Give the backbone structure.
Amino acid sequence: MKVEKGLMKEIIREWQESELPQVLPRTIEIPTSVNKIIALVGPRRSGKTYLLFWLAKDLLSKGVPREKIIYVNFEDPRLLPFEARNFEVILNSYRELYPEAYSELNSAKAYLFLDEIQVVKNWEIGVRRIYDTRNFFIFITGSSSKLLSSEIATQLRGRAITFELFPFSFKEVLNARGIKIDELTLYSGKRFSIMKAFEEYLSYGGFPEVVLTEEKELKLKILKSYVETMFIKDLVERYEVRNQAVLRELVKYLATNISSLFSLSAFFKWIKQAYPVTKRTLINYLDYLEDSRLFFLLKRYSFSLKEQALSPRKCYIVDLGLREVFGHRHSQDVGKRLENLVFISLMERKARKPLLDVYFWRDSNKREVDFIVTEGGRATELIQVCAEFSGPGVKEREVKPLLAAAQKLKCDNLIVVTMNYEDEEIIERKKIKFVPAWKWLLQ
């Protein structure tokens, strides 16, 4: 469909004349003046559009005129179906709307925000065309279940920098609730508000709309709609999944068994009794879920790349709220949920630090450490997650693998993330910090 210039002018002006909504700042830092296309990728409803609005407000506060900020949402029904050739219409419409501003672009670029770019077929052709004019700083967003980081890298061939956006971190949850954090807060009566917020975060996750909703039943309804859209509808459409029942069972199994080793062979033996399915199909479905960043499969740390590739992996979900409505939750699984929160926090850290990587560690005696953080291939932090130390021998059972890994990997930064326990101990000449999860997440 050919988009008329009149309609495009109307869309550009409509946004420029509208009042920007109230937005919450995110902890992720996005550069606004680099000569690369900035790509923001994350799950649906994780706040990509509002991050663009926040960037627009930041630019306005720095004196950038409103007419030099253009926003186009490709899910606007008036633009469907938008085609690659219509990007020229955006350029021509902007030239005609602001001839004086456009003539000055060589000295002062305009800012072009292209939201939900994956809706446009062959979008990369149009985006590259605008990029090559050198007249715009370009920002694109896409839902990770529709637009993969690997696709951006392939299609834009070195012209883009990708930033991965997650649902709210715990620090962002507190900010959304108006709870300011400083040293005094941690020891004041406000810490009870922090603990209440943490308990909700542990159950309902960090999707902005869910965090800002007070009623429990409404939170669950919102999350259920997300599951149907992100896990099912997007994946089925994108990959033309035929065996939707098997995909649902796989998602439900992974959501239930977070923070656990996943064996594809064991799952295949179980699922083939109920559905006609091949192992290759399951491998494909697992790849789809991992590529879309809805589930993560964590590799075991090993000096042998072959052993690393062949070892079973541990499974984590992008947001615990999705697990709440699609997995089977048990009252005893606080430790599993806590571990998942720590993992997602580490993924956010990894998104900011290119040289950082995360693994789990397991030796031949089946001693296991939940997370090994490396930078440039060197282990810099060993993290064990344990909700409670109330049972006999629990502390010893959790600490022994940590000490074994510390000796093997020559790392002295040892942390145990707990539910409430806090202390610092010297054990076998190694200092171990025991930190409550809510405090660790705020560091």
Notes: The domain at 5-165 is CATH 3.40.50.300 (Rossmann fold). Residues 216-239 form the longest helix (24 residues). The CA atoms of residues 362 and 368 lie 4 Å apart.
